[in-house]
Design a protein that fits this description.
The protein has 401 residues and is an alpha/beta fold. Helices cover 34% and strands 17% of the residues. The chain is built from 14 helices and 17 strands.
Length: 401
């Protein structure tokens, strides 16, 4: 993975202007960020560059302003919270290109940090417009991409800019790419993948890519119902995409050809209504689901068998919960398997990489997010990587400069 440069390859940066692409697209409540995970994720890169005397200029998008200036999507709303997290003074600059930005940057001193205004206020950003990229490039001496979560988009600030200035991976990007390489690039075998979530249709490419790459594919969530139904199991009122029966069978057949074992639950937790701790709750064999019941979680016997399978593996990639984990007790399978994976990781027996919003929430709920080898906060980028796609923001860093 040494095909991209990191901050270790930078010489003396004192007084040099670093354009650093970060992800500051945080959820807001009452005009303030309600979760600062993404802000904190930028700290290693930003702190290191500022401490080394660079002038640090942060580029980021915020919301979907569609190329229009919109006060409720201004990054000025994030500046104070970011200042609190970083523990040093932050300037806010009202544009990310042009005379206003040039003037503000010219007044900055080594070690100063500024947030430049939302890149998406320019219509050219999402079109990967080379003119906008050139205008942004004029502000900097080198480019650092530390936003893996935006790396699946070919935008001016994530892709075009990397071709105009010496380009480097930030510490977060570097950690992400190193972890992903360990998980699917050149993993230690056997490899297991847990893929959960509501719909097969959103993860078809992931499943097709994984059956050729992993030894064990564990399918959970509503997706498992579609596969069970394809195998002739009556799933009652469960969430299920019956129109994808043939697709599911094709994926199972591809897995057979690739010697990939697909794990579907053989006992399940069902209820007649989807509510916390319903009175109709019961655990049954997968062939005993009544017409008026829905499958809401994987059963305890299946989870135990999955835990046994994980104990034979050396690498795990996880995306998506096994059940309707937001509503107890349908989080039990996800929590139990996550704790098994965490214990194996802590014992040095497993490299575990997880990603995606729901997955991170589920691992936090299980109290084990910090016990996995690596947890990616990226949603779309992590999914596209699991699909085997080259991410434009990563590919641009690999270019010879």
């Amino acid at each position: 993975m040494a095909s991209f440069r990191t901050l270790d390859d930078l010489g003396d940066v004192s007084g040099r202007r670093a354009l650093v692409r970060v992800d500051l697209n945080v959820p807001m409540a009452d005009g303030r960020p309600s979760d600062d995970t993404r802000l904190r994720a930028t700290l290693p890169t930003v702190t290191e560059l500022a401490d080394r005397g660079a002038i640090v200029l942060l580029l980021a998008h915020f919301g979907r302003p569609k190329g229009q200036r919109s006060p409720d999507m201004s990054l000025s709303l994030v500046t104070r919270a970011y200042q609190d997290v970083l523990g040093r003074l932050i300037r806010f600059v009202g544009d990310c290109a042009g005379p206003l930005a040039s003037e503000a940057v010219a007044a900055m001193q080594p070690g100063d940090v500024a947030i430049l205004e939302n890149t998406r206020f320019h219509a050219g950003e999402e079109k990967n417009d080379p003119e906008l990229a050139r205008a942004i490039a004029e502000l900097g001496d080198f480019y650092v991409n530390d936003a893996f979560s935006a790396a699946h988009r070919a935008h001016s600030s994530t892709e075009a800019l990397a071709h105009l200035l010496p380009a480097y991976a930030g510490r977060g990007m570097e950690a992400e790419l190193t972890a992903l390489e360990k998980a699917l690039g050149a993993p230690e075998r056997p490899v297991a993948a847990v893929v959960g979530g509501a719909k097969v249709s959103t993860k078809l490419d992931v499943l097709r890519n994984l059956v050729a790459k992993v030894d064990h594919l564990i399918i959970g969530g509503g997706m498992a119902n579609t596969f069970l139904a394809a195998r002739g199991v009556a799933v009652g009122k469960s969430l299920c995409e019956h129109d994808l029966t043939q697709t599911a069978l094709d994926i199972l057949e591809a897995a057979d050809r690739a010697n990939c074992t697909v794990h579907l639950p053989y006992d399940v937790v069902v209820a007649k209504e989807f509510a916390p701790n319903p009175t109709s709750l019961r655990t049954c064999n997968v062939h005993e689901v009544a017409p008026d019941e829905m499958i809401l979680d994987v059963g305890p016997a299946a989870v135990e068998a999955l835990a046994d399978a994980l104990k034979t593996c050396r690498t795990l990639v996880w995306n998506g919960p096994l059940g309707a984990f937001e509503t107890p007790p349908f989080d039990a399978a996800t929590v139990q398997l996550a704790r098994t994976a965490a214990a194996l990781t802590q014992a040095g027996a497993l490299v575990s990489v997880a990603g995606g919003g729901d997955t991170v929430a589920a691992l936090n709920q299980a109290g084990v997010a910090d016990q996995f080898s690596f947890v990616s906060t990226a949603g779309g980028a992590f999914l596209e990587w699991m699909e085997g796609k080259e991410l434009p923001g990563v590919a641009a860093l690999r270019q010879p400069h």
